[in-house]
Amino acid sequence: MVFDREKARQQLLQRTKESYDRREGGIHYRYFKSDSALPLYNPKPTKDDPHIIDILPYSAGNNYPLIDGQKVIKKGDAVYKIDIEVHQYIGPSKAWIICPAKNYGLKCPICEDVDARLAAGEEWDMVKDIATKRRCVFNVIVYDGKNDEKVQVWEVSHKYSDKPILLQAKSPRTGGVEPFSDPDVGKSISFEIANDEYKTMQGHKLLPRDYTIPDTILDKCYVLDDEVVIMDYDQIINIYRPSEPLKEQEEPKTESRRPREPISERESTKSRCPHEYVFGEDIDKKTECGKCRSYDPCAEEADKLLERIKNERKKRQAEATVGNSEQPTGTVASQRKLRRPTVTTEGE
Fold first, then answer.
1. What pLDDT is recorded for position 341?
2. Given CA atoms 295, 299, 300, 302 in this order, what sign does their dihedral have?
3. Does the N terminus or the C terminus of the chain have fewer Cβ atoms within 10 A?
């Protein structure tokens, strides 16, 4: 086999660029398809100039999330983001899982567990780590460097992106909003990142543009909702509670279950639910539980599961970091390069 030096040179250059982009860590594919090779935008703490981006529109794909439980957005509709609910740091692999319940109206075992634990009297603080967090994903042009015509993908918390941007977009006088993602009459976005533990994003502003975004750039936008991984119920179960032996834990006291019989008086039982429910997980949720001969070993299994969830949550808290036609006139086609918008201070 002849060694193709030119092909190897291009591939090695690409690998070097990828390694450079990952040099400081803090960015990974989270819930995107592993073969997507999306160019993820990872803004660093600001020193002098703020970060400036243009948010670009794209045509929705097949997996756009529901809005208020309804499929408002159809395939091909113009959108500028995906606004999605995600379970973070789930299971030993610390997976980020797109919630099938809140995004697509399907069953989600994690949400079911959260609801069951709250119904059983647990405080919100005990389950909030596995409850969903709101994330946003955008196609953006970034003006921090020289690659100002490269479309990148920005995965970020809703709290630090769409929420403050929309506050800036709303007119206090008219109540209307600025269509900042419009390729013709939109606005650029500037923001800063504090050099603190949480890399807090702040100071969002809308900046005027004296150019339009050409089709040559819009054609590069990614169909973001087609780039995400959507798991089914069983796949999520395998990540959330993988089938592995559980360590024996000290049995916690419980007031919600029926009193257990002395060991000497228990009937011999099987290690599986005789009613074909989930052993240890469905205890006290079914009508058959009250008189079930396997109640006591099922309760012991439930305690072990609960203890394991608590231990995993503590470990996550310790490891998690906060850190997802014809060309019109006046476009950048005639300007060759997009120009970084000027940040002006009030009164100028």
1. 67
2. positive
3. N
